[in-house]
From TrEMBL:
CDD domains on file: secretory_peroxidase
Signal peptide start and end residues: 1-25
Residues marked Transition state stabilizer (site): 65
Name listed for the protein in its UniProt record: Peroxidase
Amino acid sequence: MASWTALKICFLLFVCVIMSGSASTQQLSGQDYYARRCPKALETITAVVKSAVASEARMGASLLRLHFHDCFVNGCDASVLLDDTANFTGEKTAFPNANSLRGFDVIDTIKSKVEKLCPGIVSCADILAVVARDSVVELGGWGWQVQLGRRDSTTASLSAANTNLPAPTLNLSGLITSFSNKGFTAQEMVALSGSHTIGQARCVTFRARLYNENDISSSFATSLKVSCPSSGGNNNLSSLDVTSPTSFDNAYFSNLVNQKGLLHSDQQLFSGGSTNAQVTAYSKNVGWFRNDFAKAMVKMGGLSPLTGSSGQIRTNCRRIN
Ligand code: HEM
Ligand SMILES: *[C@@H]1O[C@H](CO)[C@@H](O)[C@H](O)[C@H]1NC(C)=O
Ligand SMILES: *[C@@H]1O[C@H](CO)[C@@H](O)[C@H](O)[C@H]1NC(C)=O
Ligand SMILES: *[C@@H]1O[C@H](CO)[C@@H](O)[C@H](O)[C@H]1NC(C)=O
């Protein structure tokens, strides 16, 4: 009897150990993940981001976007960084990425510095997560605790990049569906869209809004048409936040209230639908936006990471080892 009880306890302990083991292989670790593995990793990343953003403020926006385009396509695994080769097709030529994503050189600079410090330790996927946070902080936003411990993929998916990243032509229900496919609520989608308080977009992504839509401020449309004519100038850039394009603030939401969203998808968040009240609330209270944004970014950073023995730590973020 005593030995039977002992056996049951032993069995339960065994199950618990196995379960905690498998749970930890799917979960990320805290921000101290590299504290002993590569103590200077985070400060090295931050220093490169600081200098890149100091020489060009927009780079902070471009770096933030890289993490989003990584995570929404088969998880935060640095698949977005892989270059195409003769026998490998990556994600860089996908419609949302081609002629649009930037910042790859900054990631290369960071990677070569951390490889010198601690070869084979710091993943490209973790670099993207830290860089996204540091970019927001550099542009005046608040930081958050970044979860770490991701590993890098040995694959990429052009088709997933084409289907999983939301298009600027989507309406509100399309945006809600796109984010819900990744496990996000409509509220989290609105918070994450606040990323468009920094950075720029090409004329080709918002032209139809200037010439075909009514829910746009006429003075705003008129000024945008100068650099975004009805034909030509596809690559001419305008700020996503017309008010304060290099400050991570809540002006994006005030702009929406004033019908000054640049993209069709931006203005959809304040077009009389279910997200109107949240946009108004964020426009009035930057603290609410920043808190919700931070939480949603941590959640986004947790999308299907590779951990344990899955994937690899790439030596060069542009190619598999
Ligand atoms: C809600 C759905 C979203 C749509 C439809 C969308 C679409 C776009 C488009 C079309 C551009 C301009 C690209 C170009 O012209 O080359 C852009 C830029 C940008 N997006 Fe989004 N986006 C969305 C959500 C997000 C999220 C969730 C983030 C970050 C967490 C983000 C971060 C950015 C940033 C920072 C830029 C500016 C990049 C730069 O200046 O280099 N976007 N987005
Ligand atoms: C792709 O080609 C390179 C040489 O260009 C080779 O080293 C690599 O093994 C090839 N990869 C595959 C998956 O065939
Ligand atoms: C949103 O777009 C989808 C697909 O284009 C369309 O079927 C739907 O009717 C649109 N919804 C609204 C409310 O306009
Ligand atoms: C691009 O924008 C500039 C002004 O920023 C404008 O002078 C130029 O004409 C635009 N390109 C085209 C093709 O319209």
